[in-house]
Every structure is written in C-alpha cells, then in structure tokens.
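Re: beginner question about structure tokens

> Can someone show what the tokenized structure looks like for a real chain? I only ever see the sequence side.

Sure, here's an example I had lying around. Input first:
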Amino acid sequence: MDGVIVINKQIGPTSHDVVNRVRVLSGSLKVGHLGTLDPLASGVLPLVLGAATKLASSLAGSEKIYEFTCCFGEVRTTDDSEGEIISKRAVPQNLLEELRELLPGFIGVIDQRPPLYSAIKIKGRPMYSLARKGKKVEAPLRRVTVNNLKILKSDGNRVRMSIDCLSGTYVRSICRDLGFKLGCGAYASDIFRLKSGRFTIDQAITMDILEKNPSQMHKHIIGLEALKSKGACSMIT
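And the corresponding structure tokens:
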C-alpha cells in the first residue's frame, strides 16, 4: 500500500501509537506521519505508507487549522488540561471585550515560546523529559506565523476559538500567552485539528472503524497518482 491515509485521531494515543497500529493493519514496515498531534489533541493526522514515506517532506504542507477551548483563570504546568494547577486567578468581568482587543497582536509573524512540556530539544533532550524530572528549562523564543485567530463562542471562562497557522505554532502557547496578557492565566483544552497541509477532516477515518474493517483499509488510502493529480506533490513521478 503506497499513499496517504488521513486518520481522525482520538484523544489519548500518541501519534506514534497510531503509526504503529496502522503499520500492523497495513502489513507495511514503512509508515510515518506528516506532523504529530499531542495525546490530548484530536483530529487530522495524515500518515504516509510505503513509497509515500520517501515523499513525506513534500506532502506535509505547512498550514494547520485548529479549533480549541481556551480556559481562563488557571495557570497549569503543561499549558493544557493534563497539567497540575499552579495558580488560580480572577478573570476580567469583560473577558470577551479584552480578549478581542488582544487578538490582533497574536496574528501575523509573532515570537512564541514553546510549552515547557513539548518535544522541543534542549541539548539533545526533549523538554518534556527534562520537565518530568523537575529540571527548570525554558525553550528559546521561536518565530511563528498565525494567519487568523478568532473567537467562535464562549461559556463563562471557557472560550472556543479557531486558529489558522503555519507549522511550529503551539496552540497551548497561544492560550498561555493570552492568559498572561489578561493577567488571569489560561490553558488549552479540546484541541481539534481540522486541517494539516492539504489534508482535511472530511478525508479522515477513525482507528476504530479501520480496525473493525481492516480488509477495507485500501479504500481509504489516497494513492500516489491521486496525490499527483491534485497537485499535492510535484516530486511524485
């Protein structure tokens, strides 16, 4: 099997867990991903199989679209719902008004510091492994691109938002920094990826469905010819 299969990853497994499960189902030793999702994130996870693994860098694409919930009033160690609470703070009474005023400053090319619990490497070691051992580390600022950031709806201190950004942007850091600017703290939850490169949630299938019907897996694979015809990868010959 050669091509791309788009998985609608559920909350819980790591991206590598999903890769391993697809490897078993496909009977292929060559399965990779086109950009990971955190265990607590769900949504679009494109995987490359067989000969497509050699074209991963061309197939990946940099645009990502997420929907997520920004929870104001708490600072957490991991900047998401899995982390321990560091502090609780009062949320501004006019939260949405102040939030709307902040959003333009988070759109465009911005400097962002990755979360403490991330896969960014410091002296060859992932930050999350150092953080779990209680070591105080801080990743350097990185320049990222946010094309759009908007509010979808709100429920008290929980604000549902969407972001259109390029690779390397951390949703958790967006929430953390919005909370810092508002003086009340914030963390991200319910992170759902709708798009990764040219691959969208409309093309995705869950692992539960795949594992119930493994013989039908080939029907969900976007073959090399289809990828070429849609202009996904000019390197496919």
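Each token stands for a local structural state, so reading them left to right follows the chain. Residues 232-237 have pLDDT under 50 and may be disordered.
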